[in-house]
């Protein structure tokens, strides 16, 4: 920090004890805004978002803001005048791609279905997803591709469980 000019240093609008390089001000403001959100109320300048001003000084600042001059100059300046040096002749071409009907429009889905590209079934219902995956496997591995048959699922445990205790049933008592 020894090689910095004093003009490169600025103070934090939230806490005047915070002094930093001008290029670090925006990053610092984000941190201080969170720390002082309940205690300090600052308004944002309409000409430069880095200018945070207390409400009593806001009206005076908007009148004298140095960035206001840039906006006012832009709004009041006359339109650029075209002269012979800045004009150029219209470029004519005999080629017009809009008139060429022989070339079909690009269809990315058609291209992906014919190229060796892995596609994913995003946004499909489960049945559509299953059909899409089967079609993709046929497309990638050939028409004679057969899906591997999964073994049937084992019977669920629910079928093998005994019925829960039912107090209405008469059970033999041991004596």
TrEMBL record:
Keyword Membrane recorded: no
UniProt entry keywords in alphabetical sequence: Metal-binding, Zinc, Zinc-finger
Coiled coil: none
Organism lineage: Eukaryota, Metazoa, Ecdysozoa, Arthropoda, Hexapoda
Ranges of compositional bias, category Basic and acidic residues: 136-160
Keyword ATP-binding in record: no
One Pfam family here: zf-U11-48K
Region annotation Disordered: where it falls in the sequence: 136-175
Recorded superkingdom: Eukaryota
Domain (CHHC U11-48K-type) ranges: 9-36, 42-69
Organism: Drosophila rhopaloa
PROSITE patterns with a match to the protein in the record: ZF_CHHC_U11_48K
Listed InterPro entries: TRM13/UPF0224_CHHC_Znf_dom, UPF0224_FAM112_RNA_Proc, Znf_C2H2_sf
Protein name in UniProt: CHHC U11-48K-type domain-containing protein
